[in-house]
Amino acid sequence: MAEDTKLRREQLLRKYEKDGFDGLTKHERLELLFTYSRCEEPAALAAELLGEYGSINALANADPTLLMKDGRVNSSTAVLLKLIPCISRSLYMERFAVKTIKDAESAKRYFSSHFIGAVGEKFIITAVSRKMRVISSKVLACGTSTRVTASYKDIADFVIKTDCSLFFIAHNHPNSPSAPSESDILFTKNIISSMSMLGAVLADHIIVGASDETSFRELGILPEMSAKSIEGYHV
């Protein structure tokens, strides 16, 4: 490490120890992080990336391949940035673990934690007991920033293997609101129909958007998922 970078790190650490994390500016937080990633001129890189992405959150959620494309960001720095949302997701899930999905709000909270730091769309399925306790969750598909597709076969396999009579599905809209699209509505309707032949009921479909969440059952947009609560689950 260059001597000036080492001295700068020590200076930032002293400020951190004295004033805490909130005592560091957005630029200083990112600069301190970069001093651990063997990048050249961490202060300049922090300023440049914040100017381009606007926030540490947006930067951490950026595609690592694109970050490294022009050579400004090395692989160590890209990995370090991606660890931020991953660690945040892990800490959130451990601290605020939802074990019983009793209503739409707890469903939104449960699935929101699974999408922290997700760059592209993901599709998750969760089996619950009749008392609405989580039995098993699985990511069935990962897609692009605007689309994800899960097969009915994979959903059926999960339902059969977990032997569940109640299940939730969820996916995210990482760059847009959580309002369901026409394809989301049709897909949900088809799942309700196909899984009913296996004796399984879809408790809810949760969409996690960039800044909000939507519950299909809460919306009541499908006759098959009326706003009337199923037993043990309230909207």
Structure notes:
- With about 240 residues, the chain is α+β, with helices and mostly antiparallel strands.
- The protein folds into two domains: about 5-90, no CATH class; about 95-220, Cytidine Deaminase, domain 2.
- About 45% of the residues lie in helices and about 15% in strands.
- The protein is built from ten helices and five strands; from the N terminus they run αααααααββαβαββα.
- α2 (about 25-35) packs across α3 (about 40-55).
- The longest helix is centred in the middle third of the chain and has 21 residues, at about 75-95.
- The chain is elongated, with a radius of gyration of 21 Å.
- The model has no long low-confidence stretch (mean pLDDT about 90).
Number of H- or I-type helical stretches: 10
Structural class: alpha+beta
Sheet with most strands: strand arrangement: 2-1-3-4-5
CATH superfamily of the largest domain: Cytidine Deaminase, domain 2
- Averaging pLDDT over every residue, what do you get? 88
**Total beta strands:** 5
CATH C-level label of the largest domain: Alpha Beta
The span between the termini is: 56 Å
Q: Which topology of the largest domain does CATH recognise? A: Cytidine Deaminase, domain 2
